[in-house]
Amino acid sequence: MLGLPLVSCGLFADPPPPCPLVSIMDRAKQVTLYRPGPGRDLTDVTYQVEIRDLAYGCDYEFDDIGNRVTVDFNILFVANRGPAAEQDRIEIPYFVAVADPSKNILNKKQFFVTLEFEGNVVRTQNIEELLQIIPYPRDDDGSDYKSFVGIQLTPAQLEDIRRANGD
Predict the structure, then answer these.
(1) Are 68 and 134 in contact (CB under 8 A)?
(2) pLDDT of residue 21
(3) Cys-Cys link to 143, which of 4, 18, 64, 124 (CB 3.0-4.6 A)?
(4) What is the pLDDT of residues 9-53, one digit of tens each?
(5) E strand or H helix at 160
(6) Are 32 and 66 in contact (CB under 8 A)?
């Protein structure tokens, strides 16, 4: 008899599905910004920015139209001011992309993080908070979808990274 009230309270309900995988793209997790011109040594660095960490959670919604998973992100950006920096504030573009279970990119959105250096501070950080809603067909598993986060690189920045990695 003691088991019936526990069952009716939902203590033995199915656990929620796991969250979709969220990861930082390796080649897009950091960038070094330089002053204008061809120089690429240490004295030409204005800022170094990286996505240092990522935390997330999710909630599922199921209805007759379809299913949705809402992913709540906290993205930690850390920046260092270099010797060639002339401003106390920078905006860095970053993106969040969603891939389906077949690894097809379903969408990609670009955002901007503002990083401010107060006084003589050479290091700063900012936590960006985002919500991402991933709709998926009723027959799919929402945890099979993936989200990727990265700094939106220019072709020249991507080339600098490739050169530094010996690609």
Answers:
(1) yes
(2) 94
(3) 18
(4) 445 467 778 999 999 999 999 999 999 998 889 999 999 999 999
(5) helix 155-164
(6) no
pLDDT the model gives residue 14: 72
Q: Are strands 21-24 and 146-151 parallel, antiparallel or unpaired?
A: parallel
pLDDT score at 13: 61
Query: What DSSP designation does 14 have?
Result: P
Asked whether the CA dihedral 119, 122, 123, 126 is positive or negative, the reply is positive
Q: What amino acid occupies position 114?
A: T
* Alpha-carbon gap, residue 143 to 153, rounded angstroms: 28
Exposed (0-12), middle (13-18) or buried (19+): which is 149, by Cβ within 10 Å? buried
Label residues 78-93 b or e (16+ Cβ within 10 Å = b): bbbbbebbeeeebebe
> Which residue's entry shows tokens 């997790």?
29
The conformation of residue 149, written as its DSSP 8-state character, comes to E
Q: Which pLDDT does position 8 carry in this prediction? A: 40
Please report the pLDDT score of residue 139 as a whole number.
81
Which residues of the chain are under the pLDDT cut of 50? 1-10, 12
> What's the token pair of residue 85?
């920096």
Neighbouring C-alpha atoms within 13 Å toward the C-beta of 13: 7
